[in-house]
Amino acid sequence: MNLYLVTGTTKGLGAALHEVLLADIENMVFSMSRFPPQDRTDSNIFVDLSDPQTIEPTFEKFLAQISGHSFDKAVLINNAGIVAPVGPFNTIDAAALKLNLDVNLLAPMILMRLFANATRAIAKQRLILNISSGAAKRPIYGWAAYCAAKAGVEMATRVASLESAVTDPLLVVCALAPGVIDTSMQGQIRDKSADDFPDVERFRAMKNDGTLRAADDVARDVVSLIHSGRLTNGGIFDIREMLQTQ
Ligand SMILES: NC(=O)c1ccc[n+]([C@@H]2O[C@H](COP(=O)([O-])OP(=O)(O)OC[C@H]3O[C@@H](n4cnc5c(N)ncnc54)[C@H](OP(=O)(O)O)[C@@H]3O)[C@@H](O)[C@H]2O)c1
Fold this sequence. Notes:
It contains 8 helices and 7 strands, in the order E-H-E-E-H-E-H-E-H-E-H-H-H-E-H. The protein is globular, with a radius of gyration of 17 Å. The protein is of the alpha/beta class. A 7-stranded parallel β-sheet has the order 3-2-1-4-5-6-7, sandwiched between helices. Helix 1 packs across helix 7 (about 215-230) and helix 2 (about 50-65) packs parallel to helix 3 (about 95-120). Bound molecules: NADP nicotinamide-adenine-dinucleotide phosphate. NADP nicotinamide-adenine-dinucleotide phosphate (NAP) binds next to helix 1 and helix 5.
């Protein structure tokens, strides 16, 4: 039996991952979301990831559900994310900045700790997969918060993997940029004004010319990468490069 915990499963990549994982009867799948995916209230742990104080008490509910079980593999996919606020850095207010960093950076870091400690004695192999973005490496006009948060997640991944290599060798911690996906996040990006986001036309063109991938396809690729063993400790991967070299 494999254990999966996926955050942000109401829509987009998270919903697709949840569906693909549930299709395998070998998997016990839990989600952490503000609303249950596909009416699966039984396995959804309700959480608002923008509220760091509630994450640990909420995680206790997940622990209660897996109590007494042991697993061949335990996987946390830190998927939930927001792109807002989009606009020049000198127009972003503190509350919007904090919300972005809480969801995109703080919540994954808190969950990494909780998941690593909780699964150590109950799973043979463990993987923490942080969903990152090309924006972690490339500055994008108007995306200061998102770029900084994703860069932070990648550095937190690298530090955690450095430490796990010494103290917890069966734990793999890595990050994966999933490529451009046809989700509501992309819709929000296309809705921005050119003043806030000068590159907006390129993103509108990506939708029109079919460059965006379907979330279901990306989810299937992510799950096969998890099974492939290619997601190694400390790796900061880009799905497009991985698919080209398989
Ligand atoms: N789409 C792309 O082209 C693209 C490219 C690179 C990286 N990514 C990354 O891929 C991941 C998934 O993105 P997506 O495109 O699927 O986005 P999406 O369609 O906007 O879905 C985001 C998910 O995150 C959840 N979420 C947001 N704020 C939350 C909060 N405070 N508490 C709990 N859940 C929250 C949303 O739930 P609610 O419905 O409750 O808001 C939703 O389930 C993100 O980490 C994103 O940065 C996406």
